[in-house]
Amino acid sequence: MIKGEVIGTATATVKHPTLNGWKMLVVRTETEPYIAVDNLGAGVGDDVIISSDGKFTSELVDSKNTPIRWSVIGIADK
What we know:
Blueprint: E1 2-9, E2 23-28, E3 33-38, E4 47-51, H1 54-60, E5 70-75
Parallel strand pairs: 3-5
Antiparallel strand pairs: 1-2, 1-4, 2-3, 4-5
């Protein structure tokens, strides 16, 4: 798990079918940015916790064949 700040969203005209309908966020951490799927409703400027648990993310998007690894698992209160 890594703490980071949402700095934007990622959009694509063509993406893997398992990502259709998912909001993808760009999350800046202390070391580098990551793209994470979000079902919690985080927005730009929010502090979030992301996880690289590939099994959890695969279950979240309901596919074992998804290319996404990171997912938002928490939003910090302000």
